[in-house]
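#lab-general

N.A. 3:47 PM
ok so I finally got the sequence cleaned up, no stray characters, all 126 residues accounted for. can someone with queue access submit it? mine expired

B.Y. 3:52 PM
send it over

N.A. 3:53 PM
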Amino acid sequence: MKVIITITLCLISILAHPVQLSAKDDEQKEIENCAELVLKRSTHRHEKPGKAAIIYCKYTRGHLSFVIPHSIEAMQVIIGDEQLPIWQGWVTSDYPETDIPVLVSEYEITCRTTENQIFKGKVQFY
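B.Y. 4:20 PM
back already:
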């Protein structure tokens, strides 16, 4: 009889205080990383030779966004080797971000503008 009372009290205790089970969200707030993509070659003769042009690339898992100069309307983004890219796509000044596949490792990123300016840098995905 004592066993039945003990089990009953345990069940009442468990039912009176429900345990909330929740799975941890795998997509916790991701740390945003930033890379500088530096102009490697300019086809514009009117640019000053000492002037450094930089595009900022912010990246998280599965997403890229860019801070680009107003003079750039659109650019092709290539991750990996230009001849055999892992991923490529386009961003514009109106929408300077894009989703990408989830990558892990360090990759070269190349941005080629519609004016044929080439920006290069490295990104480290975790």
